[in-house]
Predict the 3D structure of the following.
Amino acid sequence: MKPVLVLVLASAGIACDRAPGSQATPPAPVPSVQPPAAATESKGSEGITRFGVPDCDDYVKKYLDCVEGKVSGEQKEQLMEAFEANRTKWRALATMREGAIALGLACRAAAQKSREQLTVDYGCDF
């Protein structure tokens, strides 16, 4: 994000130095940035969604094992809804330029929160 801001500010500074009525040359197109291969989502051999980021892949597996194996009823539904909402956010993070870094941070935070909640309430291992 910083290189784009610098480019915009530099372009604005150059444009201010032009005489009134002079033609400005159009800016060069900015190449699109693809998310790193490690930050894309795929299905693993066990059918668990993998993001290619070790912190996320490990957390997703442990979370699903815990919720599916030790939680039941309405509580399980609520936990899975919250998990799906997070996974939707993580998919959006994966499209960012530094998606792998953002995913790693988000999954570490989610793992810490789950560790505090699910280990105590359900005896899950994180």
